[in-house]
Amino acid sequence: MSKGEGDEWLLINFDELVAKRQGLPPQIPVPKGKFEGLAEKGLPAKEARTWCSDFLNNSEIGKNSAWRKKNRDLVVAMEAFVDTGPLWDKAQKAFAENNFEQAISTLKRITVQHDGDHSAKLNLASAYANTGQYEPALKLFKQIYATYKGDAEFHVAVGHVHLKMQNKDGATDEFVNALEAKPDHQGALDSLTQLGVLCKIYENPKDAASLIYVRADSVESYLTGEWDKVTDATAAFYLEQIAYHERERRYGVVIEAANRAVAASGATPEQLERAELAKINALRSLERIDEALAAAKAYVERAPSSAGAHVELARTYGQMGNTAEAEAEVEKALALDAGDLSALMLKFWPDDPNDIQGIGAMLPDLEKFANEHADVPGTWRTLARAYLAVNRIDESLDLFKKAVELRPADDDLRSEWWAELAKQQRYAEILKDAEKIEDMKSRDWRLRWNEAEAYSGLGKQMEARTCYSAINFDDTLHVDIRRRAKRAANGLDEKIREAGGPAPK
To answer: Domain spans of the chain?
Structure first.
């Protein structure tokens, strides 16, 4: 720290990188009486400019020609700092108004007048990026790279420019640099996930706090390593993992979880079947057809009365092009369970599920089959889906209702019916049927969601919000479902306030 004449001014030295980052001269003159308060208040740019101007124009040392000649670079930096003050005000106003063209024009003038103001160059690069001018943005980022290296936000900004320019390797490097500077930087984590470098997973799908990011090529090895540490994992635990990773199409993880579910002590026959079928489907999804075929045949041999086993074997044969064998397995599945939805789809539906003409052509056969198995809800459900496809809406909804009456405890079936009623805005029918359910809280979350949508559709926003909130607070559900419910509840809060209703608690 050096002193001005008469101890009226103190010159504060700044680290070179700090000065460049903040657009400051390497030294700032501070009135001696103001120095004590700087540690608490910081150094406002406006006051710093005022002090620089006052020091250069009014202090004896600032006006001293010998001192100015000796400290020429510092004087030039101070003068540039003072002169660019009004331009900074203009640029900030332009940014506030989203007037990027004006901001760019103003910032360019600042960088010309004060080349050492890397803050101006950073803002100019950001303005270029916001207007899709990625080449000049990247050029400026490179000029100030050494100044901001190690700043996570800077690396993320550079990474996004690389991404816009289709330079995925460059973008990846910058996002990695950001994480090295700040390991929990959400923007960098999300960007690397988008690039496929990282994978976002919940170790416990029901616990938001279990969210982690793992290298995409190491997810299976990471999870299996974590599962190896758990000595008392049940089949139910692994089935939850199967359901979660199936949705995310992480079939290698599904296979490992299925193997562990089968090996878990105390697994019920239903749990074993779910795991075995998931494994076969995962193998087939990975196009490991020979393994899928071997697994399907082995499971059919172990569980010949499982319709699902025959369906998976049929699908495997179908993927291999063995049509006759596939059809034979479908017939075996339907002989065991005439209402197996997958078997019915394989038997009656055209190869292209969107082939309306093909669906119409198969309707007589499906109608005949349904009438021959009139007490089986799955047949009517499948026929209802076919009627929907050919726009026979009312008949379809009647068949869904008929199927529900045959199996009222089937929440999956009922939720599909309610969802189709909602599409037709027949909300009152949903709520009327909901009255038949004694304890909605214990039923599938999809029913509760349908009920909430029905209330909302009828303008009963408070009731709808209550339903969404109940889903949000249900810690037995997957985190993503609960978050979705929370967003829905928050959206209704706004509607309730706009309508002048009471503030939700």
So the answer is: 2-83, 434-505
